[in-house]
Amino acid sequence: MKSKVTGLVLAGGRGTRMGRVDKGLQPFRESTLVAHVLARLSPQVASVAINANRNLPQYQVVAGASPVLPDFLEGFAGPLAGLQIGLQFCPTELLLTTPCDSPFFPLDLAERLHAAMAVQDADLAMAVTMERDPEQPDAAPYRQPHPVFSLIKASVLPQLDAYLETGGRRMEGFFKSLRVAEVLFDDSAAFGNINTLEDLHRAERATPAVQTAATPAPSADAASGLAPAPSADPAAGFEPAATSAPAARPADNDPAALPVDEAQRLICDRITAVEATETLPLLNALDRVLAVDIISPINVPAYDNSAMDGYALRGADLPADGAAAVTFKNIGIAYAGHPFTQAPQQNECIRIMTGAAIPPGCDSVLPQELTAAIDGENVTIAANVIRAGANLRRAGEDLPQGGIAIAAGKLLRPADLGLIASLGIPNVTVRRKLRVAFFSTGDELRSIGEQLEAGCVYDSNRYTLFGMLQRLGCDIIDMGVVRDDPQALEAALRQAAKTTDAIITSGGVSEGAADYTRDIMALLGDVAFWKLAMRPGRPLAFGKVQTEQDSAWLFGLPGNPVAVMVSFYLFARPALLRMMGADSKLQTMQAHAAENIRKRPGRTEYQRGIVSTAADGTPQVRLTGAQGSGILSSMTEANCIVVLHHAQANVAAGQLVDVLLFDGLT
């Protein structure tokens, strides 16, 4: 078998998911990614080649005597372009393809694919794994094809050329014209690809996937050229999906799952504030982000004044320690706005009200309740009641003239408006409002007012996102529901990028066959796609959509309603605030767990909770109940999110946990 197979490493992409740097040449375990893939591939085939379009000399060093083949098509046309040049070169009957960013694929991949191809008389054999959605552990597993791990007959080259001439570029589209054998592998992690530098570093620390036996795929369906979906009927020649393959490894054991804090840091490192500003009347500036410092044009207070009602006097006249009480003569009264301008003589005082200017020569105020006696104009003061300089507010004590009253980046609240007004400033310069587009993806979604067919649900995520974006004060564009179609999604992203600063989507970022967001992002611009070590909200897409003239940051959130909210608060909201030029730090408090909470280390969990006051007066928190990511009612019942950190394990009742309050957030 080995003598019939040529191996081809697909390394011809643009590297958009690693900042347009070639993945294959990234350092990996004292070598490079492509070198590790070659080492894993070479024992399985008669000869190898690399498909690359840039840095050909560097790839040639790795390949040695083996050829490095650039695409025949121009413009980084995708894996099919690499397959085309590989088939043109292929000196054997069969070509085995592997990507340059998957260093742990099975060591007997070629053998298993070849066996299935022979049994089913197929043109192509492709690896398939069964996956489970970590957010829906009770849901049935779904089948995940891996078309870049394929064994294909060299004789199909004319069919591929004809397909590419039509403008087609998707592997799935070409495969429909072939007889395809699907080969089920148990370990989905063996086919994981490395999309970011963080993925790369995690993979370096990971143990290579353990090889397990493959399950034969059923014979190809004559009409579609694809194997039928798994059947629970033993007579169909396929074991039930639940038993034919184990569930995918949980997020906390997935080396490609990025910790929450790392993802937040990476987003923060890339996001900068919008530069455009506008000047508004003070009354229109509420909830806007200050673009320049407010400099105080005056001292605040503008003059020395009294901190309370009492008597202004000279500190030198106060009775000394151990001395008898002293009687002062009241010579006048000072009101706020009506100062008393006569300087007192020895043992004279002035009746003064809170906020009134301190009369000349005075430096202390005796609170009226501390007088020993008052008899007409005579005020008696006991020894050691106050010290000299007491109860004054000095000029500039709050804000000195020329000092910063409010620093740029502050989200202006009612108290800020009052402070600015106290300085006599009528207008402020703020950052312009962010323009944010949002939409949901999914053929099953229906908007309010539409007929709800069988298998469909009403779209709740757009309304949740609308509320959260409205709270941030963004100019928002509701783009509705975009169907599960790559052309429709690409058109929506291009349209949004022309007029907005950011795009928020929900759904379409997991590893299901109809989840196109990450693929379209890779086509349109710079993309980082992550599996996150968190629950809920494991899949997250972040990157920049780039059109000919415009660009916008994109946050591809999960589809489950609770996961949408949690992901928005943890990633999209801080990033949008940073774009607004505002502080984005989330504020937490601590509370005692009212009950035991189950938690396994290796991922961060965000559970809905209710904070209340315990009998001893300390804050306590209990969970709302079931924590499934589709249970939106749990968010309406909750007043907080309980944050269980990455390394944290089970929580015992009474133990302190971090809590993120909804108050001020939602």
Fold and architecture overview:
The structure is a single chain. Strand 2 (27-28) and strand 3 form a beta hairpin. It is built from 15 helices and 36 strands. Helix content is 22%, strand content 27%. Strands 5-4-1-6-8-7-9 form a seven-stranded mixed β-sheet, sandwiched between helices. It is α/β, with parallel strands linked by helices.
- Major sheet details: 7 strands, mixed
- Based on helices, strands and strand pairing, what is the structural class? alpha/beta
Query: Counting H and I runs of at least 4 residues, what is the number of helices?
Result: 15
Mean pLDDT: 84
Approximate helicity band: 10-25%
The largest beta-sheet arranges its strands as 5-4-1-6-8-7-9
Taking Cα atoms only, what radius of gyration do you get, to the nearest Å?
Answer: 35 Å
Number of DSSP-assigned strands: 36
β content, as a range? 25-35%
Low-confidence stretches: 208-252
Q: Give the N-terminus to C-terminus distance in angstroms.
A: 61 Å
Q: Based on CA inertia axes, which overall geometry fits?
A: elongated
Quick recap:
It contains 15 helices and 36 strands. It has 666 residues and is of the alpha/beta class.
List keywords for this structure.
single chain; 666 residues; alpha/beta; elongated
